[in-house]
Write a structure and sequence with these properties.
Chain lengths: ~260, ~300
């Protein structure tokens, strides 16, 4: 991550269609490097769609058309020479429901390393290190160091979600996308994950979609408000919640609709 | 006004009983078949049966005048060799086809392939045997320069084609049961399609895939008509895939009509039947338990 670079994600006139349905309409946005950016808006406003553009997992379903430009770390990800595999290596994603793979905690954490490196390059000691480092970074090491062989799917939900964050870290991503990462968690687990997000700021650019406005207010540095596929407002979080510029933003934040 | 007519009560009862009988008829049939096969073979099984000779002798001379011998080792070897050859072909192709259908193709092609494979399952086994006899036989003679093309290889190839549909459809179900969130997690980590298959799908679906293979084995062991026509019907332990063999099923089919009812020969054939029944029962039960195991696992998580 170069120091002088101000934005890690820049989109320009981004439109996205699911078949005939237009889900994003001319979204132009610059997302700051090393900060937490919250994406808020009512259901169906396109915030998750926008998030899923940044690592191009949208394209799984086949009937998606995108126009415009997305630059991740100054590289247009719709260029022909883009490697989706390397894109997804540097742009990690955390999902709404924790989705660890049905393998051990240890294997979950090193999964990324295994798929991105040749078998010979991976030494046991190096993998052990990566596991300890990643689990320490998400505050799971003390809880799980004696049960690294437990299946990831058998952990508590909070631990599962942290594990899902931990498994991104050995790949040294620049950006972490989070799609309502706390919506399946209870309040304590939510708090724990939010604290984890604080501790990750600076090291990673984090974009988080959330339905929970209080959460957006608590965790994000900047906030983007979207409505019906369009970007309405993008400012510092404090400004958005204290004096929103647009009437629609204000109404949403006040809870008049949504 | 709230009283109901007597006829309603009776008809309800009748319909319920009929449905109940339909439901348990499957159980009755299975036990019925087992009972009758067992009864026919029981006379021999409990008086003259010598398990050691039966299982470990290769001498099958049921119609010898002076010295009748009933050793089925060579016939077991026949069934085993044909099954092994069939599975060597059917497992990679069947699993490959299932993976292709479930993960790599979409829309019309997917539907088309599924229908085609179902169609493969609908071809009568005697037609398969006919293909073995008329198509594969000359092909093998030409290709390997052997005098006879009715061999274990021929039977194995035919059987593999018959086992593939069942392997494909059960494996495809198993792959479909892998939660999509696993795929999504792996894709977001930058996985390639091939890595997805062997690092995510195969481990996650391994029980279902194993069950599919087992059911394929069950199909191969139990198949009669096609192997009867395609394998050459020679009682010997095969030295190579190009030797003729005879299978347990083909032995029963070919000899039962000739054996006098109630004779030792007749009863021995039923003992072979009991043996076959046991093998396929164990295979199917294992497959069932494995599949049930998956359901329980998925239910938990």
């Amino acid at each position: 991550m170069s120091e002088e670079q101000e934005y890690s994600i820049e989109t320009k006139d981004l439109c996205l269609y699911y078949g005939d349905f237009q889900a994003l309409n001319n979204v132009t946005v610059n997302i700051s490097n090393g900060k937490i950016t919250g994406l808020i808006g009512p259901s169906g406003c396109g915030k998750t769609t926008l998030l899923r553009c940044f690592n191009r997992v949208n394209e799984r379903y086949g009937n998606v058309t995108t126009t415009g430009e997305i630059r991740i770390l100054s590289k247009n990800i719709y260029d022909n020479d883009v490697s989706l595999i390397n894109l997804r290596k540097s742009v990690g994603m955390v999902f709404q429901r924790p989705n660890p793979l049905p393998i051990s905690v240890y294997e979950n954490v090193v999964f990324g390393l295994r798929i991105h490196s040749k078998r010979k390059e991976l030494k046991k000691a190096q993998l052990d290190d990566a596991v300890e480092k990643a689990l320490r970074e998400v505050y799971l090491w003390d809880d799980l160091k004696d049960q690294l062989q437990t299946k990831g799917t058998h952990l508590q939900l909070e631990q599962q979600q942290k594990l899902c964050i931990a498994r991104l870290l050995p790949l040294k991503p620049e950006i972490i996308l989070m799609d309502e990462p706390c919506s399946a968690l209870d309040t304590e687990a939510t708090q724990a994950v939010e604290e984890l997000m604080y501790s990750l700021t600076g090291k990673y650019t984090i974009v988080i979609v959330t339905h929970n406005m209080a959460q957006a207010r608590r965790v994000s540095d900047e906030c983007i408000f979207m409505l019906l596929g369009e970007l309405v407002e993008h400012t510092r979080t404090e400004d958005m919640f204290l004096n929103p510029k647009h009437k629609k933003t204000e109404d949403y934040i006040e809870g008049r609709y949504g | 006004m709230i009283t109901r007519k007597q006829w309603t009560t009776i008809s309800e009862f009748l319909i319920e009983t009929t449905i109940r009988i339909c439901g348990i008829s499957a159980i009755i049939f299975v036990f019925g078949i087992f009972f009758f096969v067992f009864r026919e073979g029981a006379g021999f099984l409990f008086s003259k049966w010598e398990p050691l000779k039966f299982f470990f002798s290769t001498e099958w001379y049921p119609t010898s005048v002076s010295n009748k011998r009933y050793g089925i080792l060579a016939i077991i070897a026949g069934t085993a060799s044909v099954t092994v050859i069939a599975m060597t072909i059917a497992v990679p192709f069947g699993l490959g086809a299932a993976i292709f259908i479930s993960e790599f193709c979409t829309g019309k092609l997917k539907e088309f392939l599924k229908i085609l494979i179902e169609f493969l399952a609908a071809i009568p086994s005697v037609v398969w045997g006919f293909i073995g006899l008329m198509v594969m036989n000359p092909l093998i003679i030409d290709l390997f320069r052997v005098p006879i093309g009715l061999t274990a290889l021929n039977g194995g190839i035919i059987l593999s084609l018959m086992a593939i549909p069942i392997i494909v459809s059960i494996s495809e179900d198993a792959l479909k049961a892998v939660p999509d969130s696993y795929r999504e997690a792996a894709i977001a980590l930058g996985i390639t399609k091939w890595q997805m298959v062997y690092r995510v799908l195969m481990p996650a679906a391994k029980n279902g895939l194993l069950a599919a293979v087992l059911l394929g084995v069950g199909r191969a062991v139990g198949e009669t008509m096609a192997v009867l026509l395609a394998t050459g019907h020679a009682v010997q332990i095969p030295g190579s895939p190009l030797d003729s063999v005879r299978t347990l099923t083909a032995t029963i089919a070919a000899e039962l009509g000739e054996a006098p009812v109630g004779s030792d020969h007749y009863q021995v054939l039923f003992v072979i039947g009991i043996f076959l029944f046991t093998i396929t029962f164990v295979i199917n039960l294992t497959a069932y338990l494995i599949v049930k195991g998956i359901r329980v696992q998925h239910g938990e998580s």
